[in-house]
Amino acid sequence: MKKITISNVKNAEFKDVNLNKIFDPDGKHKQSYENKNSSVCNPLSDGEGKLTVCFYTLQPGKANYPYHYHTGNEEVFYIISGQGTLKTPEGDKPVSGGDVIVMPANESGAHMLINTSNSPLVYIDIDTVSSPEVVVYPESEKIMIMAGKINMKSFKIENAVNYLTDE
Length: 167
Known about the structure:
Layout: E1 15-18, H1 19-23, E2 32-41, H2 43-46, E3 51-58, E4 62-63, E5 69-70, E6 75-81, E7 83-88, E8 91-96, E9 100-103, E10 112-114, E11 121-128, E12 133-137, E13 142-147, E14 150-156
Parallel strand pairs: 2-4
Antiparallel strand pairs: 1-2, 2-3, 3-11, 5-12, 6-9, 6-11, 7-8, 7-10, 12-13, 13-14
């Protein structure tokens, strides 16, 4: 970051993100991954800084992303308002306005936030930024690799090859 940034969730411009429309046009997934978000700072797009800060709004029944954990980036959610369920390795945990959720960069930090209430769930997501980063999806046995501004790529773990294949 080059300068101090001050943002207010009440005045933020939110963009609609619907992962189902992008990655599941046939509607085969049972969970709806839709959110509205407003990025305060994002080094992957801005090219500067070590934190990503983003406001999110989840409508009832929606989740932020599939169940996953990071291997390099730590993540913090601060629930501004609303209620939901945080899926974790220890089971589902209720969350509501005022809760701070800290997720370590390892399998014990696996999570998925779902709005299980009848009103919007608003929260701030603050992430450290490591690049490259590997995200693991334990239920679907996938990994996603992200490196700077390079597009993310996802792979099934079962498709692993021997280290010396084709060398």
